[in-house]
Amino acid sequence: MEILDKINSPEDLRKLDYSQLEKLCAEIRSYMIECCSVNPGHLGASLGAVELAVALHYLFNTPKDKIVWDVGHQAYAHKIITGRREAFRNNRKSGGISGFPKMSESPYDSFGAGHTSTSISAALGLATAASLEGEEIKVVAVIGDGAMSGGLAYEGLNNAGTAKSDILVILNDNQISIDSNVGAMHNYLLRLSTSPSYNRIKNKIWHRLGNVRLRRLIQKFMLSTKLAFFKNGSIFEGLGFRYFGVIDGNDLGQLVATLGNLKNIKGPKLLHIRTVKGKGYKPAELNQSVWHAPGKFNALTGERIMSDNTRSRYQDVFGKTITELAERNGKIVAITPAMASGCSLTEMMQRFPDRTFDVGIAEQHAVTFSAGLAAGGLLPYCNIYSTFLQRAFDEIIHDVALQNLKVIFCVDRAGLVGEDGATHQGAFDLSYMRLVPNMTIAAPMDELQLRNMLYSAAESGYGPTSIRYPRGYGEGVDWHKEFSYIEPGKARLLRDGSDVAILSLGTVGNRAAKAIDKVSESRKVSPMHYDMRFLKPLDFSAVDYACGKVSVIITVEDGTLCGGLYSAVSEYVCRKYPHCRVLPLGIPDVFVEQGSVDEQMSECKYNTVDICNAIEKSYDIF
User: Fold this and answer.
1) Pairing of strands 379-385, 408-412
2) What is the pLDDT of residues 377-399, one digit of tens each?
3) I want to staple 546 with a disulfide (CB 3.0 to 4.6 A). Which of 339, 501, 570, 585 is the partner?
4) Which sequence positions are flagged as catalytic?
5) Which residues bind thiamine diphosphate (predicted)?
6) Is a pLDDT exceeding 90 seen at residue 224?
7) CB within 8 A of 325, min separation 6: which ones?
8) Residue 423, SS3?
9) Helices H, strands E: what count in the chain?
């Protein structure tokens, strides 16, 4: 890497001749592909944003000037040229750098981001703080990769336009997030991008922007042409932003020239650029959804290196089961916020396109839309990743549970998720769902339990329901069986015993079972094991039985210990069985950083060996 090897900061970048920037972009792409082929990450969007990252750091005085990257899927080039080139080889690994912008990692990461649509609000806050402190800085928000379908983006735009803040919003329009973008805003941006008449006029007047005397005339003319071509005019100008674009965001020359002009224009501005997701790597350009995060691959051929694991993934069990249930019950509908392929809803989409809804990156809307479907007499299964469901907490309470509407939340990626790190850990859904009245909370131990819980939730006895399951492969259990009803709040006694009781919730129960087998063989002891299956309603009869035989209970859960299974069991035990002691295993009161799931579980002290140690230690307590 002739040029990239010499770039240790944006200051080095700014010393380059303009002619060297194109070669630098090519080297960054090559380096990114090389690293991600052996150490997987979010590749496609970052390949498309290389020129943008280079142009921004070339023109703006970072880190004094602030660049806020939305989501972080676009920010790999930004990380590479801001002193983390070598560290990028350990991107998303334990002890390595985060896959997302992170303030504690670098002064160039002006705001952390892992969830979507936050950049404009954060940029407005940074610009306002600088103004109040008397600082002269530039603030840029880079939003894209589907993030404009999130409501928070429009709340930020509305406030920023009214406040007349001096910020630049760059809409990086690659027309796809993880799956193809949907909704009216996407269609609106597409019309803006592809109107030849509008863009011919814009190109002719673009060079005039530097002429102060013509600016007001040009502004009026721009607005009138927009009103002529688009009946509703420009939504961005209606919100108080001056709209510029569309330009080719992979054309470095045009990008540098345009940003150079906009840098000196005061007030709220929005530059609409078009980039190609996967730019410069043909396999990624041809299959953008897959190459959003492709896993390991051969960098030369583009052949993805697939796992030879023969077990089913939990999301695939969900996808096939929900399709089968929909064939039986015409009331069943499915909803996802832009995660159709990730949560395996694609099969139902193909089978029942009019009963499967991808609502875009809009979790709050997804929940209230589901509530409306339920109020209308349908049976909605709303599939949202645990970390993203947090964003719809009010809607869960106010729109679903308060009205006791039967919405079944299929909470994918629950528990520790691995390399995505702190922003994506599904650590909190057990706790925040538990405090909501009317909510049933279930967590299957294996694939068959998941299938039967999805079936059972549709039956009477269940109201609003949360069924959580982890990312990745199951236990290898044969789940292709006829449905069996599971009574809500009913635990399973997997193993009786008289020395210590292990109460586990969810798939982590499989690690508990292995630990029990090991300890029983080595110590000749008799642990009891309950698969609780439900956090709410909790099976108090199971707790009663355990407390009647043992004096130590160990709870094991793949979630935060604050408010989850440990809290529920200990609250009950301390009132009724003061002679019993409850020991917790789960996620402590910390944010868990990136690494493999096994590494993270060991860090949190509830991997198989940690459960063994806890069981052995329990014999020394009394």
Assistant:
1) parallel
2) 999 999 999 999 999 999 999 99
3) 501
4) 277, 363, 391
5) 73, 114-116, 146-147, 174, 281, 363
6) no
7) 332, 454, 455, 458
8) coil
9) 25, 17
